[in-house]
Amino acid sequence: MSVKVAVIYYSSTGAVHALAEAVAEGAASTGAEVRLRRVAELAPEATIDENPQWRRHRDATASIPEAAVEDLAWADAYAFGTPTRFGAPAAQLKQFIDQTAGLWREGVLADKPVTAFTSAFNRHGGNEATLISLANVFYHWGALIVPPGYTDPAVYAAGGNPYGASSVTGPSGDGPDTAVLDAARYQGRRLAETTLRLLAGSRERVGHP
Ligand SMILES: Cc1cc2nc3c(=O)[nH]c(=O)nc-3n(C[C@H](O)[C@H](O)[C@H](O)COP(=O)(O)O)c2cc1C
After folding, report:
1. Which of 183, 32, 186 is nearest to 119 (CA)?
2. Which of 11, 105, 125, 137 has the most CB atoms within 10 Å of its CB?
3. How much distance in Å is there from the Cα of 173 to the middle of ligand 1?
């Protein structure tokens, strides 16, 4: 049996994109089928043009398919990534999430394992607050949150964030370092392995008419 994992993210300048690729790699390393999807951009092209890094990243990732709510119906498990924006998820990801009411109503999002990752400029700039904020959505869905916790040395090596992989871009503008990418790979692997165990146990739904 193989599981289906949707890695759905928003990234302006590439940090969360790098994490998303690492999460996808980790999930795929278990034999899972993975869809890597970026959510739709909401910013006007003229605004993107004002930031060369944003423009470069947008052009470089144009070939990555855009996320659709159908990806959530397809997948057995989800990993969501977003930059930290004033300590909360980016509007682009929230816009995608706000299109899921139909699936939520049908109970499609319930009982699905889910995990999240983020990136911020500052070490204490709201990484954890962003992940916890995103988790509020998962509670409403009745999804099963699969945090990394402190279940692997990779989590400690990346700074010890038990809520989800999180990178600190800082003034250097560099992307996530090797330790954070390893933690993201671990998080993807853990999500897929947990899902496999759940699906192997039972496909019966709990609590839906
Ligand atoms: C509108 C806006 C709000 C932001 N808010 C925060 C913040 O609260 N804390 C922080 O550390 N960084 C903040 N940042 C910086 C981004 O979170 C950070 O650069 C992140 O690594 C970008 O990820 P990306 O390269 O995937 O777009 C903000 C950036 C923007 C544009």
Report:
1. 183
2. 11
3. 11
Point out the ligand 1 atom lying closest to the alpha carbon of residue 168: 21
Task: Identify the domain containing residue 89 by its residue range.
Answer: 4-207
In tens, the pLDDT along 80-114 reads: 999 999 999 999 999 999 999 999 999 999 999 99
Q: What is the CATH number of the domain that holds 27?
A: 3.40.50.360
Kindly state the tokens that stand for 90: 């980016």
Distance 83 CA to ligand 1 centre (A): 6
How many domains are contained in the chain? Answer: 1
